[in-house]
Specification:
The complex is a heterodimer of chains A (about 450) and B (about 325).
Chain A lengths: L1 H19 L7 H21 L3 H8 L26 H30 L9 H36 L7 H20 L25 H29 L12 H32 L13 H18 L2 H14 L7 H15 L17 H10 L1 H15 L8 H24 L1 H7 L3 H16 L2
Helix pairs in contact in A: 1-2, 4-5, 4-6, 5-6, 5-7, 6-7, 7-8, 8-9, 8-10, 8-11, 10-13, 10-14, 11-13, 14-16
Chain B lengths: L1 H17 L9 H34 L17 H30 L6 E8 L2 E6 L4 E3 L2 E4 L4 E7 L4 E4 L6 E4 L5 E5 L5 E7 L11 E7 L1 H16 L3 H7 L24 H8 L3 H10 L23 H13 L4
Parallel strand pairs in B: 1-5, 4-10
Antiparallel strand pairs in B: 1-2, 2-3, 5-8, 6-7, 6-9, 9-10
Helix pairs in contact in B: 1-2, 2-3, 4-5, 5-8, 6-7, 7-8
The chains are: A mainly alpha (about 450), B alpha+beta (about 325).
């Protein structure tokens, strides 16, 4: 089905170019973008049956309510098919994301090998930049964000007492978008000109002139982002409407609270990164001028839009982990979590503050100088809910009966490493320090302490 | 537990003090940045010590014996404690904000009679223009003790001007003029580093800034003006900032980003091309003859647009290895 739809995409592009009398009629950049990056994935999804129920419904054919088995997997092959059971989807997510974790890690090992000695030994500059960019893109969009989604898929309906998620078919579709996105990011290495070499942040004006691999990134983000938004929507509806009778919001486990707040972030913020990537892609393929200063474009606009998602993105990557740690520490201290209400409220505080700090990624970017101070204030204030959570976890440990099992050790390791990463964040929240430390390894260190210590250890 | 906290604090403090985390300051702005840095460090060490103390103590003291399956006390919270640990971090963090805001205001303050420098960034070279004197240079020279106002601009993609010892950094964005204030307070030569990924040559996009006495600065400006006023190849060389990347004895440049122009005769012979043609092609089409060890795309291609007479003069200057 995928090649068929690729062919359809090719025909559409060629037909319209022939109609408009443009030369050359076979423009491979456009054909790849429309055919391979847009049409072929739809073909793939249709071929595996992700759209079956909806297409049957639309065309008036009889639909099967138990379409694609909503009661679990009967054999290992079911995990490779469209399956609407939340536990199966959860496992599919976890296995797929861990595969991308390994691949992303290998990419990092490759460029670390290159960095071991001065000068270039193994790869050229384009490939090196591509390795770094793909490492980040895979880790963020195809490991951390979906892995937590997968675990939540498995666990949240159980914690709510719900039979499944609110939209099981949508759930299945949102899983299958992930392998597509991952394939796109990795396929960019094969594109002429190499992988996207602008860093995962992909700033224009550099990104506007890059070879085809950059478009693979632009589109891959769309597919991964769509998956994320669908899942977020699913969680919101499930948590709001499908709680067991008697389970008020203030009786939900903290893991559910964490996924609820994360899903709010996902649903509101992810469209912005989609927008930013569309703008860059249109600048590249359709020669629009969103970020072309000589034609009236505003280069910094990309950064504002991009970071308006990407800052909440880091909380998307963090909050589910907070929920997990709350559960783990409470169980293995044999004590209720300390300060449940404030913990839930601090999760909500992350949403409010999380949306108000994006420009702290742009302190040296040349934006309006006055904007830096309010952004500094709101950035620093995020330390408060973070502190509340850390101290509450510590208070949960206090006077408990600690069982140092593996999950508990991971949780304790998380607290230590995340505190270090978080403190480095306080440094970076201060504009003068950030002016010195921006675009250096200090930032890389901060990222990896909070992401590895925070997201991965949880 | 207090002991563990103190020990953790001491270890962290030693790590903070003994390891040279920050470069040695060479500007007023960096002095102020260092102050905020240490202010934040003291607060961070305190928090780190508290968290470490509680974790280590809890793990040691409250660990359940292997056969103990009892529950801990059903403590659900303590409002007073929760208020305290909400308020105190808020106060500490706001203290850092206030200190930082003051430092930021002072660091942005350009003062009276600053030196004006226009910084032009392109892939992959820096050019510094002194509008007051009409001087252009590939290296930045600044007088000590006087503030400098840098106006940054980019010809292609986003670059970022950074001198670690000065602490100050600002992106050079195409289409949006940006500004940076630097007040050097120490003599010396420091690297100028491009801090925003700008393409394949980003890592080589470096120059240097030399901080000299006020008299030496005036003398240098006068000398540059004279050299460029004289016309001819030498002035084109300085105006285009060739010395930012290429060592060339007649121009007094020692940069090592690109191949040394003192060796141009050998390089031309290795390429099997007469020297004048080699030099001309290397300016107009830089990737045509690549010296071994240098990647494509490192040298800007914009010099192909030089007017013919300037190009001729420049070629003659480089080939001759003498003054114009």
């Amino acid at each position: 089905m995928a090649p068929l739809f690729f062919g359809i995409g090719l025909c559409i592009v060629t037909f319209f170019r022939w109609l408009a009398g443009w030369d050359p009629v076979y423009d491979w950049t456009l054909i790849i973008t429309v055919g391979a990056l847009t049409a072929a994935p739809f073909g793939f999804l249709g071929g595996i049956g992700a759209f079956d129920y909806w297409l049957h419904y639309l065309s008036g054919r009889p639909t099967r309510p138990e379409d694609h088995s909503s009661h679990g997997a009967r054999s290992w092959k079911d995990y490779f098919r469209v399956n609407t059971d939340h536990k199966v989807i959860g496992v599919q997510y976890l296995v797929t994301t861990f595969v991308f974790f390994i691949v992303g890690g290998l990419l990092a090992m490759l460029f670390r090998a290159e960095l071991a000695r001065p000068g270039l030994q193994y790869v050229d500059s384009q490939t090196f930049n591509g390795l770094v960019s793909a490492h980040a893109a895979l880790m963020i969009f195809l490991f951390i964000i979906p892995a937590f989604a997968g675990l939540a898929n498995f666990v949240v309906p159980l914690m709510l007492g719900a039979p499944d998620m609110a939209f099981p078919r949508l759930n299945a579709l949102s899983y299958w978008l992930l392998p597509i996105a991952g394939t796109m990011f990795l396929a960019s290495f094969l594109a002429p000109g190499g992988a996207f070499a602008t860093g995962w942040t992909g700033y224009p004006s550099l990104a506007s002139g890059q070879p085809l691999g950059q478009t693979f990134f632009n589109m891959g983000v769309q597919w991964a982002g769509t998956s994320s938004i669908m899942t977020g929507l699913n969680f919101l509806v499930t948590i709001i409407t499908m709680r067991a009778p008697g389970m008020t919001f203030w009786r939900m486990p903290l893991l559910v609270w964490a996924n609820f707040t994360t899903s709010l972030l996902v649903v509101v913020a992810t469209p912005f990164i989609a927008g930013s990537q569309f703008f860059v892609m249109f600048d590249r393929i359709m020669h629009t001028n969103f970020f072309n200063p000589s034609e009236g474009g505003y280069v910094l606009g990309y950064q504002h839009i991009f970071w308006f998602y990407s800052h909440p993105a880091v909380y998307i990557m963090l909050l589910p982990g907070f929920g997990i740690v709350s559960e783990v520490i409470a169980v293995f201290s044999r004590k209720p979590i300390f300060g449940y209400r404030l913990m839930a409220l601090s999760l909500m505080a992350f949403i409010v503050f999380g949306f108000s700090v994006w420009a702290h990624h742009m302190f040296v970017a040349g934006m309006a100088p006055w904007l830096r101070v309010p952004m500094m204030v709101s950035t620093m204030l995020i330390a408060v809910p973070t502190g509340i959570k850390i101290f509450s976890w510590l208070a949960t440990l206090w006077e408990g009966r600690l069982h140092l099992t593996t999950p508990m050790l991971f949780a304790l390791g998380f607290i230590s490493m995340f505190v270090l990463g978080g403190l480095s964040g306080i440094y970076l929240g201060s504009v003068p320090i950030d002016i010195h430390a921006s675009d250096t390894y200090f930032i890389v260190a901060h990222i990896h302490y909070v992401l590895f210590g925070g997201s991965v250890l949880t | 537990m207090v002991g563990i906290g103190v020990a953790a604090g001491v270890v962290a403090a030693l790590a903070a003090v003994l390891i040279p985390w920050l470069p040695t300051s060479a500007s007023e702005e960096m002095d102020r940045i260092s102050f905020v840095y240490w202010f934040a460090t003291v607060i961070s060490i305190a928090i780190f010590a508290i968290v470490t103390a509680v974790i280590v103590y809890s793990v040691l003291k409250f660990r359940a014996r292997p056969d103990d399956e009892s529950d801990g006390p059903p403590i659900h919270g303590h409002t007073g404690l929760e208020i305290v640990w909400t308020a105190i971090p808020a106060i500490l963090v706001m203290a850092i904000v206030v200190v930082s805001a003051i430092v930021l205001a002072r660091n942005d303050n350009v003062g009276t009679n600053p030196v004006r420098v226009d910084v032009v960034a392109q892939q992959f070279a820096w050019k510094f223009e002194y509008p007051g004197s009409g001087v252009t240079s590939g290296r930045l020279v600044l007088p000590v003790g006087r503030s400098a106002r840098l106006e940054l601009d980019s010809l292609d993609v986003i670059h970022s001007f950074w001198v670690p010892e000065f602490g100050q950094k600002q992106d050079a964005v195409p289409g949006i003029p940006t500004r940076l204030v630097i007040t050097p307070n120490r003599l010396g030569t420091f690297p100028v580093i491009c801090a925003e990924l700008c393409g394949l040559g980003h890592a080589t996009m470096r120059s240097e800034v030399e901080v000299v006495t006020a008299d030496a600065f005036d003398a240098w400006l006068a000398e540059q003006k004279q050299a460029s006023g004289g016309g001819g190849g030498a002035s084109v060389f300085t105006a285009q900032g060739c010395g930012a990347c290429h060592a060339f004895k007649p121009a007094g440049s020692t940069a090592q980003v690109g191949p040394s122009l003192d060796a141009v005769a050998q390089d031309a012979q290795a390429a099997g091309v007469p020297v004048p043609e080699f030099v001309r092609e290397s300016i107009v089409d830089p990737d045509k003859y690549l010296n071994p060890g240098y990647a494509k795309g490192g040298m800007p291609k914009t010099f192909a647009a030089l007017p013919q007479d300037q190009l001729d003069a420049l070629v003659e200057y480089v080939v001759g290895g003498k003054g114009s």
